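Subject: mismatched residue count in predicted assembly?

I count 1144 residues in my input, but I want to confirm that the predicted structure covers every chain. Input:
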Amino acid sequence: MTRAVAGDAADPKHSRAQLVDFRVEPASYRHWRLSVDGPVATLCMDVDEHGGLSDRYELKLNSYDLGVDIELYDATQRLRFEHPQVRTVILTSAKDKVFCAGANIRMLATAAHEAKVNFCKFTNETRNGMEDASANSGQAYIAAVNGTASGGGYELALACEHIMLIDDRSSAVSLPELPLLGVLPGTGGLTRLVDKRHVRRDVADYVCTRSDGITGKKAVAWRLVDEAVPRAQWAQAVADRAAALAERSTRAPIENGEPGIQLTPLGKKRAGSEIEYSYVHARLDRAKGAAEITVQGPRAPVPKTIETAHDQGAGFWPLAVTRELDDLILDLRTNEPALGTWLLRTSGDGQEVLRYDQLLLDNASDWLANEIVHYLKRTLKRLDVTSRSLIALIEPGSCFTGSLLELALAADRTYQLAGLFEDSDPDTASATVTLAGMNLGALRMGNGLTRLQTRFLGDDSALEAATATTGQALEADSAEELGLITFAPDDIDWAEEIRMALEERASFSPDALTGMEANFRFAGPETMETKIFGRLTAWQNWIFNRPNAAGPAGALTRFGTGQRADFDFTRV
Amino acid sequence: MTRAVAGDAADPKHSRAQLVDFRVEPASYRHWRLSVDGPVATLCMDVDEHGGLSDRYELKLNSYDLGVDIELYDATQRLRFEHPQVRTVILTSAKDKVFCAGANIRMLATAAHEAKVNFCKFTNETRNGMEDASANSGQAYIAAVNGTASGGGYELALACEHIMLIDDRSSAVSLPELPLLGVLPGTGGLTRLVDKRHVRRDVADYVCTRSDGITGKKAVAWRLVDEAVPRAQWAQAVADRAAALAERSTRAPIENGEPGIQLTPLGKKRAGSEIEYSYVHARLDRAKGAAEITVQGPRAPVPKTIETAHDQGAGFWPLAVTRELDDLILDLRTNEPALGTWLLRTSGDGQEVLRYDQLLLDNASDWLANEIVHYLKRTLKRLDVTSRSLIALIEPGSCFTGSLLELALAADRTYQLAGLFEDSDPDTASATVTLAGMNLGALRMGNGLTRLQTRFLGDDSALEAATATTGQALEADSAEELGLITFAPDDIDWAEEIRMALEERASFSPDALTGMEANFRFAGPETMETKIFGRLTAWQNWIFNRPNAAGPAGALTRFGTGQRADFDFTRV
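Triage response: the counts match. Full output below for your records.
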């Protein structure tokens, strides 16, 4: 099997001039303005038409590309860490009569398939993160829809807890992807209509086949928005609603004037085949189609109190390592689509990891501890929906304990060395894994279960047996017997087994691997989130890949050309 | 938009010499032998290599195509109706050392995309039906795997309640689709491994990346099968297990010697643009891309007792109409893929429908009544996963009551005429819909909810208000207010609204419609069944449509040619 990688050069539709960088900060935002007034923040969308990641398109009418969404993601993160006093976020537009026109169509029409899918994944994660802020941080998002919200623009509003629509006969919400582009509203819109807002399925069908929007009172009656407000009362109504939601917020009171944690610029070196942060390192093996990722445990002993953690700010190990892992995942997904396997290693003192975990768990009511745990949870969730094979390697010197053990539990397979490497230092201890409090509920997957529960779905006795070992460092044989790892080769077989597993993975159809992994990673119950990433995404991927949308005569390709699409009407 | 329908002629891969007929009977089976011995039936697979639906392929090693599965489906139906005394079904193979090699690969490789997807849908429905027989009819399926079960062969076993594997070092189970063909096990295999058999996700990952199979004790240890039995004890062990499961069966005792209901040949005329049965009729409007389906209510008054229904046998209206609807759905799906919209009408006396419903509900412990209701349930479920737009038209003279109201509740949209048509007989009554007992639990969707619960998901007061009208004939305005229908045009608007809805539907991308409908039809909870049809199917469709599988250098295309696949290794 030849390793034919269709890179950027091979695909004329996919010329990426440079690597996408996810590290931005408010001072350099081109598309958003973030302002904070006591408990109420305003996130104002004002997309720079000429600020797209590519010059293939102009970002008219507050349409967005990945670059716009990277800033939105950054803002949602800073709101949680830098502005702990904020309890309501008003999401609105600075454009006249336009809230947001959704994902830029020309961008979608000209992007490679993998770029489209990756873009949708990230935008979905950001919108899920907004809902997570409402649910777990008492930061409620209000969509103040002060103009037309179409497609992804309305989907952005759907991710907010409360949707207000200006009632002026022209401002409307719509999901016109199907009639206009021959694709689906791919950012959770279909799922959120019926499962979150409980729009009746036949009403949803009607709404999603209209190319025009629904205005004012009808939008309220159909549950598409929560309230329609005349222009004259708009500013006051939005302010009142924001104040009311702030009042209702479950966010722990922040001492007046207590500063948040500054998310200082992330130190990162990316050169050749290395990506290096402070605690996270990746070696990119393009020949093998793999990325070797190592996550380091803490270098300093755990602070005695959570206050010291506050003082350490972005340098506090759990926050630092999560930010780095988050950035690495996004970087590799976006910039290295041909690295199909990620090897996950850890390195450091597992006991120290557990002490940091415990500090966070013991201070669950502290806003910063709460934010860090939820941030780690969201970052691990990114792994669960990453279309790469994840293989954890548990070797001597590793620290797969507590929060870092989740990396192994998120992997498709785990290998733990039985015994030691022959040439190792005689003082080295064998590789172990240790379950701890952090594995028992704080870091739930999108399906609402812990990774441990998902692993032992339907096998309660295995789950209990594993859980009973909490706190014990388990060598390979015990971990294998308990079902916590997949394989426990010894020194003689280790290198060969890993080599073969990697080569084998690299020889398989990447599409089939993605489909298989997406099905196995989420056994058990489904939630709105797993539906969005599982069912809706899969359908959208299929549609994106069909000639009726993306072919030369497809609706997405022909949009705006004046030519209508030529469909093959065969139903599949 | 030109209506470019890629029919058979346009696609050289898809030459269908004649229409597929789903009406078969045991005497003419080419691939299966059904024998019954008291409470134990044996369904023996013995595929005729030269009996495929097409001569493009030979059905070696008990591999199957749609024709083989049509016989299997027929057998499962006859077991429930014609053999009420059967409590265990042994599914086994007549071939030496081969249980079943799964779907024929050459068939898959040469089939059109829509044919592959339609084939998988039907095979999934048949396997779900086997599980339904275990759950609701006390007919447990035992897979007596007396040779190699690979791919769809093992998936067939996975749909059984109990899997026995002959322990002879060569008989093995495997899901080698990913390594060999670059596609997924598409008949529920991935979902059933983790969600039904609770195989650990990393073990499942390993199993599904192996091209060879898992034998004997290891297959038991990994939960892939329930028991491994040496060849010497095989026949006795299978017989013992069958007897034990029959003993355990919840099937109501059948009086010794009571005959089942003969599923007599279905009267059907199919000519030109008409398909006609006794109670079901379809007009195929190829120009408009629509099928107009009319389901007729009973012509005879309801029998006084369920015994009379037994005497009427296959002529008993609820059974007759269900069989006809079932056959029509399968026919249209398979033979008319370009008819993208199905218009659903009913005609007859709605009160009589309710009386038939009530007879069935009042005799829930009668085996035949039970079978008919579950058969109707399964047939309506077919509608839920049919990739066609479903529009119900509720007009004067219709009988959308109880069981037939489910047709409207299954539709993507419903139109009910307000008032009468201007030129109608003055004695005509307005169109009504009537909720009844049959809508409240007996005919649940794959998501475990009634269609009414799904419709009003998250809106309990609307659900209660609707349910409170049980038994009342609701005219259009009431039905609209209650949310039971979508639109209530009057005579002046009716024809134009329907025409526009149809034309609009016919102008949209059929792929986007399929994706949208698949997402809206199943709001709320997910089950193994919705996962199989929602998530797994969507991923498989995507993979089937990717060059890595189905392109000229794809794995599915090149299988068996000696040439390896050329993959684009970009991860999507």
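Confidence is low (pLDDT under 50) at residues 1-17 of chain B. Marking this ticket as 'not a bug'.
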